Sequence to fold (813 residues):
Amino acid sequence: MLSADLYSFVTRVRGHAPLVHCLTNLVVTNFTANVLLAIGAAPAMVVAREEVGEFAPIAGALSVNLGTLDVPQSRAIRAAVDAANGAGKPWVLDPVAVGPLTFRTEFALELLDLTPAVIRGNASEIISLSGGAASGRGVDSTAATDAALDAAQILALRTQAVVAVTGATDYITDGRQVVALSNGSPLMTRVTGVGCALSATVAAFIATATSRDEHFAATVAAIACTTIAGELAARDAALPGSFAVAYLDRLASLDENAFGQTLVMRDVALS
Amino acid sequence: MLSADLYSFVTRVRGHAPLVHCLTNLVVTNFTANVLLAIGAAPAMVVAREEVGEFAPIAGALSVNLGTLDVPQSRAIRAAVDAANGAGKPWVLDPVAVGPLTFRTEFALELLDLTPAVIRGNASEIISLSGGAASGRGVDSTAATDAALDAAQILALRTQAVVAVTGATDYITDGRQVVALSNGSPLMTRVTGVGCALSATVAAFIATATSRDEHFAATVAAIACTTIAGELAARDAALPGSFAVAYLDRLASLDENAFGQTLVMRDVALS
Amino acid sequence: MLSADLYSFVTRVRGHAPLVHCLTNLVVTNFTANVLLAIGAAPAMVVAREEVGEFAPIAGALSVNLGTLDVPQSRAIRAAVDAANGAGKPWVLDPVAVGPLTFRTEFALELLDLTPAVIRGNASEIISLSGGAASGRGVDSTAATDAALDAAQILALRTQAVVAVTGATDYITDGRQVVALSNGSPLMTRVTGVGCALSATVAAFIATATSRDEHFAATVAAIACTTIAGELAARDAALPGSFAVAYLDRLASLDENAFGQTLVMRDVALS
Fold:
């Protein structure tokens, strides 16, 4: 994959301003919307079961995040996913804290059968979804991302989704190929919602894909865009409050030159 | 209307610190509260149907925003509006994304009968509320604000509310007079919740009105204060993360001199 | 109490990264999570009644905030408190706006019987909880903190909790001893959620206590850390938007030297 091909998704998002329907958690709604606006997409957070079906054909993609799942939201998510599938719109699953918590884990496993285009999680979450016994303690991953690579491949082959395991190194696989990205900054873990907003960014990027074949490249591009903006923002600010501000600024101002010069990507041989 | 008369509402809000009860969407609660604090008002986000009635007499005004409406919130809103009306407190309606979504559109039409003091929306929303066929795609307006001016006038005459259509140019009408404001910055659309928080700001300003006759001027003042702060903040910051910070700072530090020198206001002849 | 002993809790939180389960209000979820990350703790906002019980043994402490209480959340809070007590994890009660609102006041009074480790509120809230007639108008306290000192002592003796009344001067008591802290800045009241996030910070600090005997010192340390960071941030920024950013930065960068040099603490004789 070439840097210029990845960057073309950044340009597409800015040009098309895809409307991203987010059913996300209560902690990150605002930050997610601001990240989507910073990259040039348009956020929409319609939440009611009564409305999500009607909204799916209007939106370009759907992003589902289980961070503060409860029963009413699980019903809205099911309706939204059905409507997205019915309207031919791709959707992203962010299985926050799946593993130690039974309710969301069972719900996430149900969702796996509803053809997500992309699944993005940390190592613990991806290991749990693939059937392994992970050691997460909620939102934190206690497993390194490389330990989750096998799990990601299994999950991708089973679901036909692109699977992304994000952490210090990010792995993206469709079950046949794997790309590793090594950009970012530890400061990204000191601001709540960076990972959750990344899932919405992935949704914005795949909304601009011309076919399912582009979902893999779009996901790599979204993660590269996010982690490069984070890495550049860490040059502007060393502490989390000002880093969060710089991060949004860097997302909005990212250009092809900085993208290409900062990107650290390699192909990984599958086992 | 004189600049000094408009600015007097800024002074009143800072002096009285009106308590603004907000029933708003999940994306903008935090930003709305911070905007209200920046202008010198006091936010209160009591949400439960069990409590909104008891809270109405304590609050100075109520701000209702339909951005993430669901059934429980619709019940709380109805109870809060009834209580505000019962207690003689003015309330503001922000009909987010009304038009393409049936559930909220029907609910917004019901609310029109409950004597809102002010209705603030984008062009698509105001056209929809007045019975026209708008072309919104949710939170974004795809219609220019001037196209909504007729709709705003119709809506104002029918509801006896002040109606504000905000966009690049803002129009405020009570059905008999129209004022156009042309301040602001495109960056205001790159930060989520600026429009939603403006509705709460309108509520804070009308809370200081001595009679219903002042609602028109108070609404113009609230929108002028908001767009002037945005225009000044865009001189401080060119990217959305730092703009949001500068915007809150400019709201808090706005003075009469800068207000008067920046204000671009004109009367519009009604058709 | 020595400054070095208080600061040792800051070091412990950074070393252990305690997982703090927050059931808090819709306005401050994001800011609370960012404050917890800034001090080195790990936020977790599991909200569903179905999950809170399972989560209690994983978390280090629980923080309960009644700011936007509704019936579903009251059920989740009851389940979470029972589970925390069952798992031997301490919990903090933040009785936002208790007094004028019946639903939350009755609920807060119920919670008093469930052995909170710490109760943190403003003067009006603490007076209301102790059975007095306070004059709050919701989230704002209209009573000075010293007027609440008697009420705090009564409440501490009755509940066996540490009680903190925060305001321009903060009082912390376990019913037998009282410490007064006089750090901070008026800007802390211009950013929404500083007080609510402080309650979560107290939860993070008591999560590192080796026994219940340390809860008093941990609470003093959490409030000192918060108000000192606020006081230092006010040297960096004079307006609320930039102050909020500086506040998070100061929380993250607070060192023992600045802590010791800034701390203004005194013992208060109990009546």
User: Anything to note?
Assistant: The longest strand of chain B covers residues 19-23. Chain B has a mean pLDDT of 95. The first helix of chain B runs from residue 3 to 16. The interface with chain A takes residues 25-31, 67-71, 97, 100-104, 137-140, 189-193, 239-242, 244-245 of chain B (CB under 8 Å).
